[in-house]
Design a protein that fits this description.
The structure holds two protein chains of two kinds.
Chain A: H1 2-17, H2 21-44, H3 48-52, H4 56-68
Chain B: H1 6-47, H2 50-70, H3 75-83, H4 86-92, H5 94-120, H6 127-156, E1 161-164, E2 169-172, H7 175-179, H8 182-212, H9 217-252, H10 254-260, E3 267-268, E4 272-278, E5 292-298, H11 301-307, E6 313-314, H12 317-322, H13 332-354, H14 358-371, H15 392-421, H16 429-455, E7 460-462, E8 466-467, H17 468-471, H18 477-508
Antiparallel strand pairs in B: 1-2, 3-6, 4-5, 7-8
Helix pairs in contact in B: 1-2, 1-6, 1-8, 1-16, 1-18, 2-18, 5-6, 6-8, 8-9, 8-16, 9-10, 9-15, 13-14, 15-16
């Protein structure tokens, strides 16, 4: 089991180490994910119902109120 | 609705359209190229010819670039659901949750696990296991698309659900009805097949560039052969599924169908306008009757396309707005009245439950359920009926340009394949340049398909049940404007990065065995 896990780790380690263009792509992926999840999601995209209401009952009451007003 | 902030609704729609269109720039190449790579590697596995391995690895690198730049761009759409479209997000309940959860668990993990083997596993795992991984990446990518498209199809044709008035959420009562609804089947197959066409065009266009530069000729010809065959098969199947989509549209979204055809007055033996120019394209005329400046028609074709009967009556915009008792078509006014009853009885039900008046709650619920199919029309009671007509010129032209380009792609596949067989492709500079410049056209056609589907169904977010005006969150329009431009900058940056890295990889050409790495 230990050997299998070690082989998998080595497989990924060697794979990432030997990348050429892949390093540039990973940099883009990481920058993009940081921008999406740590900037846009946190500061610009709060979940409206989750931030304004505590329970699902409050959320459903609010949505019904919105839909029927 | 007492007060509608149209600026908020329009900016929220614009932002969603921007992110969806940009996201779709990356997706189709991933869907189609993954299969082309799998075919190429299968040939390597079966023949043992190292040239096929070299070819596979080159296209795999471009696949990797596209995958890396495009990955997670779709997550933004989910952010928007929670922030800009919270009423909608709550209202759809678990209908969206289930397919998207399956997508996350099954398809995404399958894709991301085997993608590592695909890129890092050459000479480390057996040829058979590597090939299996490549196929699983292709299948996984396409399965991801399946679940997203099932969710989208449900919005166009809500099936297999029941609205729970206590929670204000739609609950799935039959998963198979959601998965196998006629709209879902056609939407998935038509969309992925069109993605295969785009990927085939991409491979042929890039290979044509190599031939024009007199570089890597065996590589380019082999790539073109695979892509052209794949493209021809995909083109014919796209026609079949497109035909199915048109029939679904005529049945379940007749207003979209009438707008797409600019059919104002319904008629029997309706002709299809193959080519047409509309007279008016001014803002005030976008949702109103449009005359043709010029048109070429195919007699009876629209009736046949819609109902498989050349004599069938195809309802026009006028019938759908004002009703047509002869063909049992309800007017918008009648539908709005029913929708209004549904909205009022939902409010009555909620108040009766609060007051613990079970008798009143029961009668309100009965009234609500009887009128729920027209719920969304209730928001248009007393409003201008033209608000329920989508943008006619945009859907009309988008459809025609998409179909026209589809025929161009099929002709290109056939021509390059014939020239390849006759060994005349290198000399046909016009065909090679056409192939190269068809790459952007494939992207245009792909985006136009989405414009027909999504602009054509406006103002509905969920067909007949929830319009955009009732689906948005009560937030400030300025905050949506700010994030619109932030996304515009982010996506444009990603697109520039994609094009730059792709071009540099293409210029390098297929690598030798020793230098071949991602």
């Amino acid at each position: 089991m230990k050997l299998i896990i070690n082989n998998i780790i080595q497989f990924y380690y060697q794979g990432f180490r030997n990348m050429t263009i892949g390093k540039r792509l990973w940099t883009i992926i990481i920058i993009k994910l940081v921008l999406l999840f740590l900037v846009l999601k946190v500061f610009f995209f709060p979940n409206f119902l989750k931030t304004h209401f505590k329970t699902d009952a409050e959320r459903s009451n609010y949505v019904i109120e919105q839909l029927t007003k | 609705m007492e007060h509608i902030d149209f600026s908020l609704v329009d900016w929220s729609r614009a932002q969603f359209a921007l992110t969806a269109l940009y996201h779709w720039l990356f997706v189709p190449l991933t869907l189609g190229l993954s299969f082309i790579i799998a075919f190429m590697e299968t040939l390597y596995y079966r023949t043992g010819n190292p040239e096929w391995k070299r070819i596979t690895k080159f296209w795999m690198t471009l696949f990797g670039v596209n995958f890396a730049i495009g990955v997670a761009t779709g997550i933004i759409l989910e952010f928007e659901f929670g922030t800009n479209w919270s009423n909608y997000s709550w209202f759809v309940g678990d209908i969206f949750g289930a397919p998207l959860a399956i997508e996350g668990i099954m398809a995404f993990f399958m894709e991301s696990t085997f993608i590592a083997v695909m890129f890092f596993g050459w000479n480390k795992v057996s040829k058979k296991f590597h090939l299996a991984s490549t196929w699983l990446v292709a299948i996984g990518s396409n399965l991801s698309a399946l679940w997203i498209l099932v969710a989208n199809a449900w919005m166009q044709y809500p099936a297999g659900m029941r609205f729970n008035p206590d929670t204000a959420r739609n609950e799935m009562v039959n998963f198979w009805e959601v998965l196998f609804s006629p709209v879902a089947i056609n939407k998935f197959s038509h969309t992925v097949l069109s993605a295969y066409i785009l990927a085939s065009i991409f491979v042929i266009g890039v290979s044509a560039w190599f031939i024009l530069k007199n570089r890597e000729l065996p590589f380019a010809k082999k790539s073109i052969k695979i892509a052209a065959i794949f493209g021809i098969v995909a083109s014919f199947l796209t026609m079949v599924t497109g035909d199915g989509s048109a029939r679904n549209m005529a049945k379940y979204q007749p207003m979209k169908f009438a707008a797409m055809e600019n059919l104002y007055d319904g008629q029997k033996n309706a002709p299809l306008v193959a080519i047409g120019i509309l007279k008016e394209d001014k803002q005030e005329a976008l949702h109103k009757k449009q005359d043709f400046r010029f048109q070429i028609e195919i007699p009876n074709m629209l009736s046949y396309m819609a109902f498989l009967d050349p004599n069938a009556y195809v309802p026009g915009i006028k019938d759908l707005v004002h009703g047509n008792p002869e063909y049992k078509i309800m007017s918008i006014k009648e539908k709005s009245e029913k929708g209004k009853v549904a909205i009022q009885s939902l409010a009555e039900y909620k108040n009766a439950k609060k007051a613990k008046n079970d008798t009143l709650a029961k009668s309100a619920l009965t009234k609500f359920e009887a009128n729920y199919p027209w719920f969304g029309y209730g928001y248009y009671a007393g409003r201008d009926e033209h608000e329920l007509i989508p943008n006619i010129p945009l859907t009309f032209y988008s459809f025609r340009i998409m179909v026209g380009l589809g025929f161009h792609f099929l002709a290109l596949f056939l021509v390059v394949l014939i020239l390849l067989k006759k060994e005349k492709l290198e000399k046909s500079k016009i065909v090679l340049y056409t192939a190269l410049w068809t790459i952007p056209l494939a992207y245009i056609a792909s985006e136009l398909g989405w414009i027909v589907a999504e602009v054509g169904r406006q103002p509905w977010v969920i067909q007949d049940i929830l319009p955009a005006i009732a689906a948005v969150s009560q937030i400030k329009a300025t905050s949506v404007q700010i994030t619109f431009w932030l996304f515009f900058i982010l996506f444009t940056g990603l697109l520039i990065a994609e094009i730059k890295i792709m071009l540099s990889q293409i210029k390098k050409g297929p690598a030798t065995e020793s230098e071949s790495k991602l």
